[in-house]
């Protein structure tokens, strides 16, 4: 099995989930005492979050590219970025390394198309929901029509991510807010919902949603493990 490199720390709560799922899925695929050979570079989220708020995506691209190069030098055969929002700078990462970079939206887009979904709700940070880097990729590569919550819904979804989930705080009232947002997306025609922030999986499971849930974290991990196994077969 090839070695999976992960850029983590944004937040470390979701990075821990990545590590758990990588090894759980590798064990499910390979059995016995197997786990996923992996490397992780964990960045400090505080300056990352500050640069996000300032809109300094160039600086963030430089930082993510440097982290990817560290992984490549350490022996990673493929690189994952354990966050949806920071895929805003995926081009800087791809340009910096020779090994493959797995974009988080692609396994999700493939899974949605395989399920026959054409219109999907997207939950994530404001950056992911409001900027074009994510929904645009889903549209251009997979022909998906993406719906996002209204202004108040986006504000609530974003606040809960940064003020609660990134700190490992899981609150029932926040789950209800997300459920209300998902119900509104369904009423507007969404056939499914993307958990488009890696922390949302800590709060929302399939049983919490009136729509089919597509968890970007789980789909990203599964695709990476499948690649790492099949690349040596």
From TrEMBL:
One of its GO terms (molecular function) is amino-acid racemase activity. It holds the Pfam family Asp_Glu_race. Coiled coil: none annotated. The keyword Isomerase applies. SUPFAM superfamilies: Aspartate/glutamate racemase. Keywords: Isomerase. Belongs to the aspartate/glutamate racemases family. PANTHER family: ASPARTATE-GLUTAMATE RACEMASE FAMILY, GLUTAMATE RACEMASE. This is Aspartate racemase.
